[in-house]
Amino acid sequence: MANGIDRRELIKIGVGAVVSTGVAGAVEAHKFFTDAEYTAVDELTEMMIPTDDHSPGAKAAKVVDYIDRVLGEAFEPEERNDFRAGLKPYVEATPEQREAMLKKASVLKPANRSMEAKFFRLLKEHTIKGYYTSSIGIHDDLQYKGNVYQTGEYAGFLPS
Amino acid sequence: MPTDTHEPNLNPDLTKTYDAIVVGSGAAGGMAAHVLTSHGMQVLLLEAGKKLNIEKELKSMQWPYDHPRRGDMPPDSHALSLNEYNIRPLPYAKGSRYKHVYSYVQGWSGSDYSKNIVVDEKDNPYTGEKYAWVRARLLGGKTAIWGRLALRLSDYDFKAASRDGYGEDWPISYSDIEQYYDRVDNYLGISGMKEGLPQLPDSLFQRPNRFTSAEMMFRESLKSMGRVITPYRAGVTTDGLKHNRYRSKCFGRGACGRRSGGCDIHAAFDSPTGLIYPAMDTGNLTLRTNATVYQVDVDKNTGRASGVSFIDTETGKTYQAKGKAVVLGASTLESARLMLLSKSSQHPGGIGNSSGHVGHNFCEHIMGPGVTGLVKDQIGKAPTLDDGKPGGFYLPRFRNLKEKNKNFLRGYGFEGGAGSRMFPSHAFETPGYGKDFKKQVRDYSGAFIEMGGFGELLPRYDNYVDIDPNVKDRWGVPVLRMHIKFGENEKNMAKDMAEQAKEMFEHAGIQIIGVDENLLTPGWSIHELGTARMGNDPRKSVLNQFQQSHDVPNLLVVDGSSHVSASCQNPTWTIMALAWRSCDHLAEAMKKGEV
User: Quick check: A155 contacting B, CB < 8 Å?
Assistant: First the structure.
């Protein structure tokens, strides 16, 4: 492309990038989770990063699909096993129980080696990664302005 | 597309004697190819890696959600961690169950875009003491993903030994190289702002990158300390280059800073579009890729370089190429490896190594100490475009200029930045979960500022590399063995770096979130230098001031191995200015029949 980019083309690229909706909604079988696990993780990620009056949350961003894929592909079987083991009590719990369990786990110290603490950290890390790399996380929640061709005045301030 | 005409020639004419053979196609080799072909010389450029379709690799504008793994490498690929570098025995990838093992840079975001650019540690082992060696084998070498900070050195560096009594002066002064820095600036493009600092000479700048409001505040605050942050001096053409049709001006997209580097419109300098394609357009350059040079060949009668032997990395076949001169630009450690491997009856310790200094006097930049802070009045502000530029700020050296520090010699600078990024990595450290968590991540996303130091590692004869007698790489070439350790000067400097970083943030009213005090593994800065240093005394140096071997006049080494000391300023621009000067000198000398 080099010097062959014209201005109109650039504006088109810029605008197109911002309004792009990203993740397609095709329904496919889970790569790793059982249906019950999938439903539980979908709810748990939403509890982690919920919809609020500012932006949709993890459920709308399909974070569960991201986690399902990551675990399904994971090279180390421990990654799958640890997650599944930690998830088990949540699968069987009611929404109120889940909330209470998450709350309890969230205040455990980073050095805590229990399954509860470990699962909370795993769930949180995966949800953060999945949500803030999604279209909803980047555009709707953070309202990130970059990754565009700047064709007019460049953003920022010129020091003197 | 013009780039389609720049395919390598996998079957070049090896019956003829080229005017020069250049080994390596990064900043050094690319510059050598450019300068020598511009003098009308017939040049054969040998690159160990492939020519990649780099635009297809980098996909600079791709969003994380457009990628199946949000930019991450396939799960069977692994990036070495700091812990592994410090604890695992070398070679690091030996016995790993992963299909591919890469250096730490593949642990950064967007690693899928650079996985074909950096080497697989399984194919390219090294041994000895802990060392993080980042290598890129492809046309252009590490310039495909370099960090872009393009700084000049000054006489504080070239004459450092005269100033503080440690080590050796360079055989040149700033006045010898200034016009070559100018040429590099004009030919390749550099972005920055004049500051008039003696320790960091100004370049011939194109449009400077802009600051975020927190960076503006920090610059203002530093004035009362007599210090400065300047917009990232990037080896990026921000205004475009009329003489180069392969490179676009920078549109501030920011992908180079979000990932390991790389620019698919080539606003950031890379050797192929900046140097090699224009050199090919002269008709004087033959490019052979997949060609790993394993020996500099020697004329048995004269002891001079007669050419090189190389192995085709795909077929394993070996070839000889003949040249009137041989110019090494394989990188600091690879050029040293190649010289040490090139043993002959005339050069029993390796070619150009009568001094015994090849592989020694290793120097680089220490890294690790730094600070992260929170700019309180940025919390909850409406988001702005903060990362649409090739870098944040550079804070030049302020130690051992006028005053003499009692704890260490030389100095350090900082690279840093402030403002919002595409990925809010502070989310991992934000406590709790739920609505409050989500709001805090959002409110704080533009409020962080951070900087990390780059300090001068003093060159020492005892910091060296040699050839491992037992271990070979995938192609059967003996590998390097590292003997590199930090000493008291580095430890004392690191302590000061952390303290000063903290003090400057506190002075600016920035809330300190974290201070890093520990040094990272040697090699981390990817600024390795010094293993074939220049000097006037052939007993204590490998090359003269024109990067010409004292022993073998038709052998040049034009990469970072020639540097006498590391300075604390990033080396790429100096590598290219020196290579330009030396290749001008070689071309003139050959015309006069002196070489």
Answer: yes
Rounded CA-CA distance A21/B436 in Å is 26
Closest to A9 in 3D by CA, of B248, B273, B206, B238: B248
Residues 91-150 of A with CB under 8 A from B: 102, 106, 124-125, 128-130, 132-135, 138, 141-150
* B351 residue type, one letter: I
Residues of chain A contacting B69 with CB distance shorter than 8 Å: 69-70, 73
Q: Name residues whose C-beta falls within 8 Å of residue B202's C-beta, 6 or more positions apart in sequence.
A: B152, B192, B194, B195, B196
| Closest Cα in chain B, distance from residue A45 (Å) | 9
Q: Are B45 and B276 in contact (CB under 8 A)?
A: yes
Beta bridge partners of B365: B456
Q: How far is B464 from chain A (nearest CA, A)?
A: 37
Which amino acid appears at position B399 of this protein? R
**Alpha helical stretches, state H, B389-464:** 434-444
Q: Determine the pLDDT at residue A3.
A: 38
Closest chain B residue to the Cα of A5, Cα to Cα: B248
**3-state SS assignment for residue B18:** strand
d(CA B268, CA B145): 9
State the pLDDT at residue A24. 43
Rounded-to-integer distance, Cα B362 and Cα B562, Å: 10
ipTM of the complex: 0.94
At residue B534, φ and ψ (nearest 5 deg) are -80, 160
Per-residue confidence (pLDDT) for residue B116, from 0 to 100: 97
Q: What is the pTM of this model?
A: 0.94
Q: What share of chain A is helix, strand, coil (3-state, %, to 5)?
A: 60, 0, 40
Are the C-beta atoms of residues B289 and B10 closer than 8 Å to each other? yes
Q: How far is A64 from chain B (nearest CA, A)?
A: 13
